[in-house]
Amino acid sequence: MIQKIAYIVCLAVFLISCGQEKKSSEIKLAGFVFGTTYHITYVDADNQANYQKSIDSLFNLVNKSLSTYLPTSDISKINNGDTTVVVDKMFVDVFAKAKKIYKETAGYFDPTIGKLINAYGFGSGKERKNLSSKEIEKLMIGVGFDKVKLENNKVYRESDQIEFNVNAFAKGYGVDVIGWFLEDKKINNYLIEIGGEIRARGKKKGKLWKVAIEKPNIDGTRSLQKIITLDDESMATSGNYRKFKINENGKKIVHTVNPKTGLASQSNLLSVSVRLKGDCADVDAYATAFLAMGLEKTTAFLLKHPELKVVLLYNDKNNELKEFEN
Predict the structure, then answer these.
(1) Are 192 and 279 in contact (CB under 8 A)?
(2) Neighbouring C-alpha atoms within 13 Å toward the C-beta of 56
Protein backbone atom coordinates (compact mmCIF):
# COMPACT_ATOMS: atom_id res chain seq x y z
CA MET A 1 0.00 0.00 0.00
CA ILE A 2 1.10 3.53 -0.70
CA GLN A 3 1.14 4.57 2.97
CA LYS A 4 2.51 2.55 5.80
CA ILE A 5 -0.44 1.09 7.69
CA ALA A 6 1.29 1.50 11.04
CA TYR A 7 1.17 5.24 10.54
CA ILE A 8 -2.28 5.77 9.12
CA VAL A 9 -2.98 9.45 8.93
CA CYS A 10 -6.13 10.52 10.76
CA LEU A 11 -8.31 12.56 8.44
CA ALA A 12 -7.56 16.25 8.62
CA VAL A 13 -10.75 16.89 6.73
CA PHE A 14 -14.05 15.10 7.12
CA LEU A 15 -17.31 15.37 5.25
CA ILE A 16 -20.25 17.47 6.34
CA SER A 17 -23.74 16.45 5.25
CA CYS A 18 -25.39 19.05 3.09
CA GLY A 19 -28.91 17.80 2.55
CA GLN A 20 -30.68 14.53 1.92
CA GLU A 21 -30.88 13.04 -1.55
CA LYS A 22 -33.26 10.40 -2.77
CA LYS A 23 -31.76 7.01 -2.04
CA SER A 24 -32.67 5.87 -5.55
CA SER A 25 -30.12 8.22 -7.15
CA GLU A 26 -27.35 8.49 -4.55
CA ILE A 27 -24.62 5.88 -4.35
CA LYS A 28 -22.22 5.74 -1.40
CA LEU A 29 -19.09 3.61 -1.39
CA ALA A 30 -16.49 3.28 1.35
CA GLY A 31 -13.46 1.17 2.10
CA PHE A 32 -9.74 1.03 2.77
CA VAL A 33 -6.99 1.89 0.29
CA PHE A 34 -3.49 3.37 0.25
CA GLY A 35 -3.17 2.79 3.98
CA THR A 36 -6.23 4.87 4.85
CA THR A 37 -10.00 5.07 4.36
CA TYR A 38 -11.99 6.33 1.41
CA HIS A 39 -15.54 7.59 0.91
CA ILE A 40 -17.21 8.15 -2.44
CA THR A 41 -20.65 9.67 -2.96
CA TYR A 42 -22.13 10.25 -6.40
CA VAL A 43 -25.53 11.06 -7.81
CA ASP A 44 -26.50 8.86 -10.75
CA ALA A 45 -30.14 9.54 -11.55
CA ASP A 46 -30.11 7.60 -14.81
CA ASN A 47 -29.02 4.05 -14.03
CA GLN A 48 -28.01 4.08 -10.34
CA ALA A 49 -24.96 1.96 -11.19
CA ASN A 50 -22.64 0.67 -8.50
CA TYR A 51 -19.07 0.96 -9.77
CA GLN A 52 -17.34 -0.63 -6.77
CA LYS A 53 -15.57 -3.31 -8.82
CA SER A 54 -14.35 -0.82 -11.38
CA ILE A 55 -13.10 1.51 -8.65
CA ASP A 56 -11.27 -1.34 -6.92
CA SER A 57 -9.59 -2.15 -10.23
CA LEU A 58 -8.48 1.46 -10.63
CA PHE A 59 -7.02 1.50 -7.13
CA ASN A 60 -5.05 -1.64 -8.01
CA LEU A 61 -3.69 0.06 -11.13
CA VAL A 62 -2.53 3.07 -9.08
CA ASN A 63 -0.74 0.75 -6.66
CA LYS A 64 0.81 -1.23 -9.52
CA SER A 65 2.28 1.96 -10.91
CA LEU A 66 3.10 4.12 -7.87
CA SER A 67 3.20 2.12 -4.62
CA THR A 68 6.57 1.94 -2.90
CA TYR A 69 5.08 -0.78 -0.68
CA LEU A 70 4.50 -3.09 -3.63
CA PRO A 71 7.83 -4.65 -4.72
CA THR A 72 6.49 -5.35 -8.21
CA SER A 73 5.24 -1.81 -8.86
CA ASP A 74 6.89 0.31 -11.53
CA ILE A 75 8.20 2.81 -9.01
CA SER A 76 9.71 0.07 -6.82
CA LYS A 77 11.42 -1.52 -9.80
CA ILE A 78 12.88 1.83 -10.84
CA ASN A 79 14.09 2.51 -7.30
CA ASN A 80 15.76 -0.91 -7.31
CA GLY A 81 17.70 -0.10 -10.47
CA ASP A 82 15.60 -1.77 -13.17
CA THR A 83 16.30 0.31 -16.28
CA THR A 84 14.00 -1.73 -18.51
CA VAL A 85 10.76 -0.47 -16.94
CA VAL A 86 8.36 1.15 -19.39
CA VAL A 87 6.03 3.22 -17.24
CA ASP A 88 2.30 3.63 -17.77
CA LYS A 89 0.15 6.73 -18.27
CA MET A 90 -0.40 7.10 -14.52
CA PHE A 91 3.33 7.35 -13.87
CA VAL A 92 3.71 9.79 -16.77
CA ASP A 93 0.90 11.96 -15.38
CA VAL A 94 2.38 12.01 -11.88
CA PHE A 95 5.89 12.70 -13.17
CA ALA A 96 4.65 15.69 -15.17
CA LYS A 97 2.77 17.13 -12.20
CA ALA A 98 5.77 16.60 -9.93
CA LYS A 99 8.08 18.37 -12.37
CA LYS A 100 5.72 21.35 -12.66
CA ILE A 101 5.22 21.83 -8.92
CA TYR A 102 8.90 21.14 -8.17
CA LYS A 103 9.77 24.09 -10.38
CA GLU A 104 7.00 26.34 -9.07
CA THR A 105 7.95 25.75 -5.44
CA ALA A 106 11.70 26.04 -6.09
CA GLY A 107 12.23 22.46 -4.96
CA TYR A 108 10.13 22.44 -1.79
CA PHE A 109 8.06 19.70 -3.40
CA ASP A 110 10.44 16.94 -4.45
CA PRO A 111 9.51 13.26 -4.89
CA THR A 112 13.18 12.21 -4.92
CA ILE A 113 13.41 12.27 -1.11
CA GLY A 114 12.59 8.56 -0.88
CA LYS A 115 15.78 7.58 0.96
CA LEU A 116 15.25 10.31 3.54
CA ILE A 117 11.64 9.27 4.12
CA ASN A 118 12.80 5.70 4.69
CA ALA A 119 15.61 6.79 6.99
CA TYR A 120 13.19 8.72 9.19
CA GLY A 121 10.92 5.68 9.41
CA PHE A 122 7.99 6.94 7.35
CA GLY A 123 8.54 4.85 4.24
CA SER A 124 8.85 1.27 3.07
CA GLY A 125 12.60 1.03 3.67
CA LYS A 126 14.74 0.57 6.76
CA GLU A 127 14.61 3.25 9.44
CA ARG A 128 17.81 4.74 10.83
CA LYS A 129 17.76 5.84 14.44
CA ASN A 130 19.00 9.31 15.40
CA LEU A 131 20.31 10.46 12.03
CA SER A 132 23.50 12.49 12.28
CA SER A 133 24.12 15.61 10.21
CA LYS A 134 26.71 13.69 8.19
CA GLU A 135 24.23 10.91 7.43
CA ILE A 136 21.63 13.46 6.33
CA GLU A 137 24.22 15.20 4.15
CA LYS A 138 25.05 11.88 2.48
CA LEU A 139 21.38 11.10 1.86
CA MET A 140 20.87 14.54 0.34
CA ILE A 141 23.18 13.56 -2.52
CA GLY A 142 20.25 11.61 -3.96
CA VAL A 143 17.76 14.47 -3.71
CA GLY A 144 16.81 16.64 -6.66
CA PHE A 145 14.07 16.24 -9.24
CA ASP A 146 16.32 18.03 -11.71
CA LYS A 147 18.51 14.91 -11.61
CA VAL A 148 15.88 12.70 -13.24
CA LYS A 149 14.12 12.70 -16.59
CA LEU A 150 11.42 10.80 -18.42
CA GLU A 151 11.88 9.96 -22.09
CA ASN A 152 9.79 7.57 -24.16
CA ASN A 153 8.13 6.26 -21.00
CA LYS A 154 11.46 5.36 -19.41
CA VAL A 155 12.91 7.01 -16.32
CA TYR A 156 16.56 7.99 -16.18
CA ARG A 157 18.34 8.84 -12.92
CA GLU A 158 21.72 10.52 -12.64
CA SER A 159 22.55 8.31 -9.67
CA ASP A 160 21.38 5.08 -8.07
CA GLN A 161 21.17 7.08 -4.84
CA ILE A 162 18.02 8.76 -6.16
CA GLU A 163 14.87 7.10 -4.85
CA PHE A 164 11.34 8.13 -5.76
CA ASN A 165 8.50 8.44 -3.27
CA VAL A 166 5.27 9.99 -4.55
CA ASN A 167 3.23 9.27 -1.42
CA ALA A 168 2.95 13.01 -0.80
CA PHE A 169 0.40 13.30 -3.58
CA ALA A 170 -0.51 9.72 -4.51
CA LYS A 171 -3.75 9.84 -2.52
CA GLY A 172 -4.71 13.00 -4.36
CA TYR A 173 -3.92 11.37 -7.68
CA GLY A 174 -6.02 8.36 -6.70
CA VAL A 175 -8.91 10.74 -6.00
CA ASP A 176 -8.49 12.23 -9.48
CA VAL A 177 -8.43 8.82 -11.15
CA ILE A 178 -11.81 7.98 -9.64
CA GLY A 179 -13.16 11.42 -10.52
CA TRP A 180 -12.13 11.04 -14.15
CA PHE A 181 -13.75 7.61 -14.23
CA LEU A 182 -17.07 8.96 -12.91
CA GLU A 183 -17.01 11.86 -15.35
CA ASP A 184 -16.42 9.41 -18.18
CA LYS A 185 -19.63 7.70 -17.04
CA LYS A 186 -21.42 11.08 -17.35
CA ILE A 187 -21.62 11.45 -13.56
CA ASN A 188 -20.96 15.09 -12.79
CA ASN A 189 -22.24 15.35 -9.22
CA TYR A 190 -19.89 13.62 -6.82
CA LEU A 191 -17.58 13.90 -3.85
CA ILE A 192 -14.53 11.65 -3.47
CA GLU A 193 -12.36 11.56 -0.34
CA ILE A 194 -9.29 9.43 0.31
CA GLY A 195 -7.51 10.03 3.60
CA GLY A 196 -8.73 13.62 3.76
CA GLU A 197 -7.92 14.53 0.15
CA ILE A 198 -11.06 15.60 -1.70
CA ARG A 199 -12.43 16.20 -5.17
CA ALA A 200 -15.93 17.66 -5.46
CA ARG A 201 -17.89 18.31 -8.61
CA GLY A 202 -21.42 19.52 -9.15
CA LYS A 203 -23.98 19.61 -6.37
CA LYS A 204 -26.04 17.49 -4.02
CA LYS A 205 -29.75 18.31 -4.21
CA GLY A 206 -29.02 21.73 -5.62
CA LYS A 207 -26.44 22.63 -2.98
CA LEU A 208 -22.68 22.75 -3.25
CA TRP A 209 -20.71 20.15 -1.31
CA LYS A 210 -19.45 21.20 2.11
CA VAL A 211 -16.47 19.87 4.03
CA ALA A 212 -14.80 20.83 7.28
CA ILE A 213 -11.26 21.53 8.37
CA GLU A 214 -10.28 20.20 11.77
CA LYS A 215 -8.45 22.04 14.50
CA PRO A 216 -4.89 20.68 14.88
CA ASN A 217 -5.50 19.34 18.37
CA ILE A 218 -2.31 17.71 19.63
CA ASP A 219 -4.16 15.88 22.41
CA GLY A 220 -6.00 13.73 19.87
CA THR A 221 -9.44 15.26 20.41
CA ARG A 222 -11.53 16.17 17.36
CA SER A 223 -13.11 19.58 16.77
CA LEU A 224 -13.91 21.83 13.82
CA GLN A 225 -11.92 24.84 12.73
CA LYS A 226 -14.15 25.93 9.86
CA ILE A 227 -16.50 24.74 7.11
CA ILE A 228 -15.55 25.11 3.45
CA THR A 229 -17.90 25.09 0.45
CA LEU A 230 -16.42 23.41 -2.62
CA ASP A 231 -17.48 24.76 -6.01
CA ASP A 232 -16.08 22.25 -8.52
CA GLU A 233 -12.86 22.25 -6.52
CA SER A 234 -10.34 19.86 -5.06
CA MET A 235 -8.95 20.25 -1.55
CA ALA A 236 -6.11 18.62 0.35
CA THR A 237 -4.96 19.03 3.93
CA SER A 238 -1.53 18.20 5.32
CA GLY A 239 -0.38 18.44 8.90
CA ASN A 240 2.39 17.32 11.22
CA TYR A 241 0.48 17.45 14.49
CA ARG A 242 -0.55 13.77 14.48
CA LYS A 243 1.88 11.87 12.30
CA PHE A 244 5.22 12.11 14.09
CA LYS A 245 7.73 10.17 16.16
CA ILE A 246 9.84 10.93 19.20
CA ASN A 247 13.42 9.73 18.83
CA GLU A 248 15.69 8.41 21.56
CA ASN A 249 16.84 11.93 22.37
CA GLY A 250 13.27 13.13 22.89
CA LYS A 251 13.21 15.11 19.64
CA LYS A 252 10.01 15.21 17.59
CA ILE A 253 10.43 13.83 14.07
CA VAL A 254 7.58 14.76 11.71
CA HIS A 255 6.64 12.99 8.49
CA THR A 256 7.23 16.03 6.26
CA VAL A 257 10.85 16.14 5.13
CA ASN A 258 12.27 19.45 3.96
CA PRO A 259 13.92 18.66 0.58
CA LYS A 260 16.21 21.66 0.98
CA THR A 261 17.75 20.64 4.29
CA GLY A 262 16.89 16.97 4.70
CA LEU A 263 15.43 17.74 8.13
CA ALA A 264 12.10 16.53 9.49
CA SER A 265 11.58 19.07 12.23
CA GLN A 266 8.34 20.54 13.54
CA SER A 267 7.68 24.20 12.72
CA ASN A 268 4.96 26.53 13.97
CA LEU A 269 2.88 25.67 10.89
CA LEU A 270 0.56 22.89 12.03
CA SER A 271 -1.95 22.40 9.23
CA VAL A 272 -2.25 23.42 5.58
CA SER A 273 -5.44 23.14 3.53
CA VAL A 274 -5.26 23.99 -0.17
CA ARG A 275 -8.11 24.12 -2.64
CA LEU A 276 -8.16 24.77 -6.36
CA LYS A 277 -10.44 24.48 -9.37
CA GLY A 278 -8.29 21.66 -10.65
CA ASP A 279 -6.89 18.27 -9.74
CA CYS A 280 -6.56 16.88 -6.24
CA ALA A 281 -3.01 15.67 -6.92
CA ASP A 282 -1.95 19.28 -7.43
CA VAL A 283 -3.38 20.61 -4.16
CA ASP A 284 -2.00 17.55 -2.36
CA ALA A 285 1.48 18.40 -3.63
CA TYR A 286 1.15 22.10 -2.79
CA ALA A 287 0.01 21.28 0.76
CA THR A 288 3.11 19.14 1.27
CA ALA A 289 5.38 21.83 -0.16
CA PHE A 290 3.87 24.52 2.08
CA LEU A 291 4.47 22.45 5.22
CA ALA A 292 8.13 22.23 4.22
CA MET A 293 8.29 25.95 3.34
CA GLY A 294 6.88 27.17 6.61
CA LEU A 295 4.53 30.07 7.26
CA GLU A 296 6.49 33.03 5.91
CA LYS A 297 7.59 31.48 2.62
CA THR A 298 4.12 30.07 2.01
CA THR A 299 2.34 33.40 2.46
CA ALA A 300 4.88 35.02 0.11
CA PHE A 301 4.32 32.25 -2.46
CA LEU A 302 0.55 32.74 -2.33
CA LEU A 303 0.86 36.39 -3.34
CA LYS A 304 2.01 35.14 -6.74
CA HIS A 305 -0.54 32.32 -6.95
CA PRO A 306 -4.03 33.74 -6.31
CA GLU A 307 -5.58 30.66 -7.92
CA LEU A 308 -4.73 28.71 -4.76
CA LYS A 309 -7.11 29.14 -1.83
CA VAL A 310 -5.32 28.25 1.38
CA VAL A 311 -6.06 27.97 5.10
CA LEU A 312 -2.98 27.88 7.34
CA LEU A 313 -3.25 26.97 11.01
CA TYR A 314 -0.19 27.88 13.07
CA ASN A 315 1.03 28.75 16.53
CA ASP A 316 2.10 32.33 17.14
CA LYS A 317 4.98 33.40 19.38
CA ASN A 318 2.70 32.97 22.40
CA ASN A 319 1.91 29.41 21.28
CA GLU A 320 -1.69 30.38 20.54
CA LEU A 321 -3.49 28.87 17.53
CA LYS A 322 -3.93 31.35 14.69
CA GLU A 323 -5.50 31.10 11.25
CA PHE A 324 -4.43 32.59 7.94
CA GLU A 325 -6.71 32.50 4.90
CA ASN A 326 -6.06 34.20 1.59
Answers:
(1) no
(2) 8
- Single out the residue of 100, 71, 90 nearest to residue 178, CA to CA: 90
Q: Which pLDDT tens digit goes with each residue over 119-150?
A: 988 888 777 777 888 999 999 999 999 999 99
pLDDT given for residue 268 in this prediction: 85
Give pLDDT tens digits for 179-217.
999 999 999 999 999 999 999 999 998 999 999 999 887
The reply, when asked if residue 284 is annotated as ligand binding, is yes
Q: Using pLDDT thresholds of 50, 70 and 90, give the confidence band for residue 254.
A: low
221 contacts: CB under 8 Å, gap ≥ 6: none
Task: Specify the 3-state DSSP secondary structure of 12.
Answer: coil
When the candidates are 3.20.20.70, 3.10.129.10, 3.40.50.300, 3.10.520.10, the CATH number that belongs to 26-325 is: 3.10.520.10
Ranges of each domain in the chain: 26-325
219 among annotated binding-site residues: no
Where are the extended beta strands (E) located within 71-220? 148-151, 154-157, 190-194, 197-201, 203-204, 207-214
**Partners of 33 in the β-ladder:** 36
49 is in an annotated binding site: no
